[in-house]
Amino acid sequence: MPAQRGIMKNKVIERLSFFGSLLNKGHSRTVKARKNILASFIIRGCNIAISLILVPLTIHYINPSQYGIWLTMASIISWLSFFDIGFGNGLKNKFAEALATGNHQLARIYLSTTYAILGIIMGAVLLIFNFVNPFLNWSAILNAPPEMAAQLNVLALLVFSFFCIQFILQLITTIITANQQPAKASFFNLLGSAISLLVIYILTKTTNGNIVYLGLVLGLAPVVVLLLASIWFYTREYRLYAPSFKYVHFSYARNLMSLGVKFFFIQIAAIIFYETSNLIIAQLFGPAQVTSYNIAYKYFGVVPMVMGIIMTPFWSAFTEAWVKQDLPWIKRTVGKLTKLWFLLAILCGLMLLIATWVYRVWVGESVIVPLSISVTIAAYVVINGWNSIYSQFLNGVGKVKLQLYLAVIGSLINIPLAIFLGKSLGIYGVVLSTTLISIVSAIVTPIQYRKVVSNRATGIWNK
């Protein structure tokens, strides 16, 4: 027996060594991305599990209609993310460029200045919202029962306040991602989700369904996690870049904004493009139907989540490679990501085949998701995954002007088209609108990528 245990132990050690050699094989930039992808898969896998449990738990805590109201309000408030004027993504690129050139003081200046600017912006926005909120009729905005008006005003104030605080605190995740360590950043989301799940479970046992309590928990949990993470990292690993009033130089805001303002308008267009679906569905078909749409979106969201895990390390990796003009590595990496996309497209097709059964097991008979919605969301997910390969590269190298034009035009077309198709085809039509418009980017962005990496990009293709 001892001999057998020794043999088994040696086999385990050999396999771990083989796995370790594979993990550390290749370019240092690729190895770093590979390790973060593996860690992110583990973290996001736990996050998915928590999310799958949290959805039915939340629906049963309140009810499908109130859950739809919550989702719609959260979507509306998330639109306010454009108030960073693109500073977050501008910081990601500038911070990564500063690290690539070894200029640590410049990196700290960019970070401190971004904290100061976003603090001023969010403080002003929060004051304005506190003044305006009492005059907003959230029942009408969300198509909710009139008797919920007072409750929804309190909920809106809570959610908005936490959103503003989180908006500033999440800069810690921006610089960690810019340093090509997105797994650490995604771990914060896992902690926030785990805390939310625990507290909501306690609420189901100790209180009657209350949408304000729900908003309090889901808003406060990520704020607490990000605050503690900021204290931890800025006193340890990232002490060299810790924000300080001494390093706030508003003159550097122009450098951040020169690229950031493009991301700013892309963000606005993207929010209008993607997040209006909840509001249009709520107005045309009622809040309960928002729940059906979001159940399908969360289910198929596993695929873009996997794609996002893989793609996230490459934004800043592409930035570093572009600064160093390592074009062979860029081309090899994009080729590998394209092959991976084909596998994920097949996975999405398999998920579609079992979607109805999964919905029934997951949320029971309380929510019915039409097959047409599942098909359309599956198609959208596949197209968006293809777009993400090329947009990630273009974002990393700052060639985003063409994306900006496509996003703005698409967002302007999407709302009237979604309303028209929604009235003509039902909920399926609202989702179809977003899917159809995404096809344009799926054609244009690969063309721009090829022009840029072959140094043939001119005019709008090179901006």
Structure explained in plain terms:
The structure is a single chain. The chain is mainly alpha-helical. It has one domain (29-462). The chain is built from 18 helices and no strands. The chain has helices spanning 2-23, 28-61, 64-78, 87-100, 104-132, 138-141, 149-169, 171-178, 182-206, 211-234, 253-285, 287-300, 302-323, 327-353, 355-363, 371-397, 401-425, 427-453. The longest helix is centred in the first third of the chain and has 34 residues, at 28-61. The chain is globular and about 60 Å long. The N and C termini lie far apart (68 Å). Residues 7-19 have low confidence and may be disordered.
Helix share, percent = over 70%
Shape: globular
Helical stretch tally: 18
**Integer tally of domains:** 1
Q: Summarize the biggest pleated sheet.
A: none
Structural class: mainly alpha
Low-confidence stretches: 7-19
> What string, H for helix and E for strand, traces the elements in order?
HHHHHHHHHHHHHHHHHH
Number of strands: 0
Residue share in β-strands: under 5%
Give the CA-CA distance, first to last residue. 68 Å
Mean pLDDT: 83
What is the C-alpha radius of gyration, as a whole number of Å?
Answer: 23 Å
Query: So what's the oligomer here?
Result: single chain
Key terms for this structure?
mainly alpha
